[in-house]
Amino acid sequence: MPDRFDLPAGFRWGVATAAYQIEGAVDEDGRGPSVWDTFCARPGAVRDGHTGAVACDHYHRYPEDIALMKDLGLDGYRFSIAWPRVLPTGSGRVNPAGLAFYDRLIDALLEAGITPLPTLFHWDLPQALEDNGGWLNRDTAYRFAEYAAVMADRLGDRIPAWITLNEPFVHTVFGYALGTHAPGRTLMFEALPAAHHQLLAHGLAASVLHERGLEVMLSNNLTPVRPATPSPEDAAAARAYDALHNRLFTDPVLLGRYPDLSALGVPDDIYGAIHPGDTDLIHAPGLDGLGINFYNPTRVAAPTDPGLPFDLVDIPDVPHTAFGWPVVPDALRQLLVSLKELYGKALPPITITENGCSVEESTTPDQPRIDFLAGHLDALAAAVAEGVDVRGYYTWSLIDNFEWAEGYHQRFGLVHVDFETQKRTPKASYDWYRDLIAAHRVRSSR
């Protein structure tokens, strides 16, 4: 196939996964319980009572999954490390068997010519830390830095770049504000100390990683925010939502300050969570790259409930994924260009660390996923043409997996997984992505 996307030579192609969504083996080799183990055991918390206890059995089948990656011709693989597999109680005693698994995984990736890109935290907090308050407890940030040091000392000789956190916005809102994800708390805006403590954890861990000569990234789910109408009320609601979803997690890291959250009714000290010097700890280490997970734009209207600062409303007249998310590929270009305009020289090189869609299993031959990926890569190439420095693209996901509160009902994979037999079957999008990567390499070598 022709390479239709004008992306620079050296552009990195990858796929992404997360530990709790694929590894399984939750009771093996000394792994401690995580908040997701606990949440999945709660009646009604996860659709149909599904759990990640087995997931895709990647813990045992990783050689097969790496063979699929090698066949794709990938440059990189973004995965997450299960904190409770390495430090079963979140701190203190290190689990040698857990570290040994990641040793095996990384050596196998390198042997296949694939660069590992690990994420230290993708939502599976050790339950012992949650029992002490989780991300509402400032001490968790310091335990995270301790964990980062353990991983860097063991694996840093083979892994040049690390992602600290995945989607602190989603984890804060779904896990601590709305309760639809683990740990299932329903604190609304009083959940925001969990956001600050995650950012503090990022800053502390970034210093640990930089001290060891390693590069540091942070990945968040970002979305361009559109007012539902041109009215001043809708515009104000959109600004409030943008501050919460986007700027709360980029301004402190890139600019060393929090955005104005007064429209949300949030005090400047985020309910006492911010201590003197915290923003320096978050900002000072700097970022070597910004990871962006992109799925859809957000349309916002003035609130109908006077107790809320905004309403989220659907985007009409566009396709939607099986998850019900609107498909607007050019919104990715808009997001990337707006970040360049907003942050200027403070914006580090960008990597798209997640982008993909859920497609109904009965859909043949996977054309909606191919159209989704192609449209977003077109938008990415357009942003690059407008001067945005984007270095790589990691699609979500390599394989169908445990999709959090949806259990096994949403399929994002390039590879189909039969969760009864664990048989892997590449989809049409897998072949399309493999051919795209090969064509880009041919063009880049000319």
TrEMBL record:
Organism: Streptomyces kaniharaensis
Keywords for this protein: Carbohydrate metabolism, Cellulose degradation, Glycosidase, Hydrolase, Polysaccharide degradation
Family annotation (Gene3D superfamilies): Glycosidases (3.20.20.80)
PROSITE patterns in alphabetical order: GLYCOSYL_HYDROL_F1_2
PANTHER family documented for this protein: GLYCOSYL HYDROLASE, LP05116P
Active site as annotated: 167, 354
Family: Belongs to the glycosyl hydrolase 1 family.
Highest taxon of source: Bacteria
One matching Pfam family: Glyco_hydro_1
Protein name: Beta-glucosidase
GO MF entry, a single one: beta-glucosidase activity
Enzyme class of the recorded protein, top EC level: hydrolase
Catalytic activity, as annotated: Hydrolysis of terminal, non-reducing beta-D-glucosyl residues with release of beta-D-glucose
Any single biological process term in GO: cellulose catabolic process
Binding residue positions for substrate: 21, 122, 166, 295, 396, 403-404
Gene Ontology CC, one term: cytosol
E.C. number: 3.2.1.21
